[in-house]
């Protein structure tokens, strides 16, 4: 007989069942009574040694991101580590390389390490099976007293969250590009299985639609969230016949690859085609030309998420902090030719 059996019999979450049996004061009296009655009915007896391990304190926090080599995640990780150092905590870092199964595996491993808090950094996946598997893994972790916070939208995962306004930032960028005079656009979208891509593409499209402009499917090219992904997606866009006066790459690293592809094709940015990205990673300011983008406070995102994960838990609700992006117009965009 397991704690999960007791939780199901009592009709409560695994975390609530654990708190009720451990005497936590934040559990309502009726729920505590229901859990204890179910435990007695099922003859459940928690293992004292396992309970002691669950309550033990660990000086580590786990951070699961897509790719620490990506400057976006590196910037956030710096913020996480700065906040962790203030609390004398060590950071255990795992890169999933956007493999949803690897993300679940890392969550399981860090649960086994009994880290004090776990941070999921980066986009969630538009995949119901993954969502349910990750939710179950995080419920088991919370049942031992672990804390979870996420950066970016993770559908189906109930956790404190720091949410960059991806949709709103992309919409504001589109409006800024429209103000420059552009009416024909193409998008290097990134993998459509990621919530970040879904949100940025939706925001960009909605702002264009408000002006009566609709993106054709042929003007949206999916590619990896990497420099090479942006390069290859731009090559595909050129093969299809570039009809846009402005190209929006859903991340700055994709835009870097796009800039190289345009140069190889003999196209000048922004004289022949304007180019914009998203995130404002440090290196794009030194490109020729410097890249127009939506700036996010990357290190601040990491610090906020780390501090949020270490705050006292509020079982009744999750905390959400929304972070606005700021459009920064640089020399990679100009009026249409």
Structural features:
45% helix; Rossmann fold; 3 domains; single chain; alpha/beta; 15% strand; 434 Repressor (Amino-terminal Domain); 4-stranded parallel β-sheet; 337 residues; elongated; 12 helices
Low-confidence stretches: 48-56
Q: Helicity, in percent?
A: 40-55%
In DSSP terms (H or I, runs of 4 or more residues), the helix count works out at 12
**Main sheet strand line-up:** 2-1-3-4-5-11
* CATH H level, superfamily name of the largest domain: Response regulator
Instruction: Report the major sheet.
Output: 6 strands, parallel
Q: How many beta strands in the DSSP annotation?
A: 12
The top-level CATH class of the largest domain is Alpha Beta
Mean pLDDT: 88
CATH architect. name of the largest domain: 3-Layer(aba) Sandwich
Organism: Lentzea tibetensis
Keywords: DNA-binding, Transcription, Transcription regulation
InterPro entries: HTH_LacI, LacI/GalR-like_sensor, Lambda_DNA-bd_dom_sf, Peripla_BP_I
Domain HTH lacI-type: 1-55
Secondary-structure blueprint:
Layout: H1 3-10, H2 14-22, H3 29-41, H4 48-55, E1 60-65, H5 71-86, E2 90-95, H6 100-112, E3 117-121, H7 128-143, E4 147-151, E5 160-164, H8 166-179, E6 185-188, H9 195-209, E7 220-221, H10 227-240, E8 246-249, H11 252-264, E9 274-276, E10 293-295, H12 298-310, E11 320-323, E12 326-328
Parallel strand pairs: 1-2, 1-3, 3-4, 4-5, 5-11, 6-7, 6-8, 8-9
Antiparallel strand pairs: 10-12
Helix pairs in contact: 1-2, 1-3, 2-3, 2-7, 5-12, 6-7, 8-9, 10-11
